[in-house]
Design brief:
The protein is built from ten helices and two strands; from the N terminus they run H-H-H-E-E-H-H-H-H-H-H-H. It is mainly alpha-helical. The protein folds into two domains: 62 residues, Winged helix-like DNA-binding domain superfamily/Winged helix DNA-binding domain (Arc Repressor Mutant, subunit A, Orthogonal Bundle); 140 residues, Four Helix Bundle (Hemerythrin (Met), subunit A) (Up-down Bundle).
């Protein structure tokens, strides 16, 4: 992997997991030393982050961008448009068996969320597999790329809402309903299930937005 790719991946992960908070100035000398690379590949990495909207270049240098309630509303407006359409297309074009399997896993997902040692990484990996299956099923590379770009910001927003077990369990059931509708080949139901999930997710995020995200370790 090239030095610029390593720097991009490291900084991107630090930003979306809130280890680099909004407003943090990414000074070239400091970051190049921290990452063990020269300033040329660092600049390339910072340019990619700025193009994604995770950083912005200004008078103070490159700064990690913030997320406001207005940003969240706008992102979810776009998310509803893209993901609703994608779910409908997946219901028309996808392999029913793939989504039947995902539905079964999602119905069992509360086992990953509850208990003293919840396996949240496994839960989010399962949700990611549903996203990947939908991306593959729609057979539209432009729409899939647009959704992948959007998800970068959605991971940051998810950290704002923390890991609330009750909400995650409800979200798992909502994802299962989406998978079920796609497996059944029902575009309207798949889109409606997606919109319902997004509305509930947005309400939860806005209700918890006033509290800063928990410090993340690991």
């Amino acid at each position: 992997m090239r030095a610029s790719d390593r720097a991009y991946a490291s900084l991107r992960d630090d930003i979306i997991e809130w280890r680099l908070a909004p407003g943090t100035v990414l000074a070239e000398v400091e970051q190049s030393e921290r990452l063990g690379i020269s300033r040329t590949p660092l600049r390339e990495a910072l340019g990619r982050l700025t193009a994604e909207g995770l950083t912005t270049a200004g008078g103070r240098g490159v700064v990690v961008t913030g997320i406001s309630l207005e940003d969240i509303d706008e992102l979810f407006e776009l998310r509803e448009t893209l993901e609703g359409k994608a779910a409908a297309l997946a219901a028309r074009r996808g392999d029913p068996a793939t989504f039947e399997g995902l539905q079964r896993e999602l119905l069992n997902a509360p086992q990953l969320i509850s208990g003293n040692h919840p396996a949240l990484h496994d839960y989010y990996e399962l949700v990611g597999r549903l996203d990947t299956a939908i991306d593959a099923a729609i057979s539209n590379s432009y729409l899939a790329q647009a959704m992948r770009s959007l998800r970068v910001h959605l991971v940051r927003i998810r950290r704002l809402a923390a890991d609330d077990a009750c909400r995650l369990a409800a979200a798992a059931a909502e994802h299962a309903a989406i998978a079920e509708a796609i497996a059944a080949g029902n575009p309207k139901l798949a889109e409606a299930a997606t919109v319902l999930h997004l509305h509930r997710s947005l309400s939860h995020i806005k209700a918890t937005h006033a509290s800063p995200p928990k410090e993340h370790h690991g």
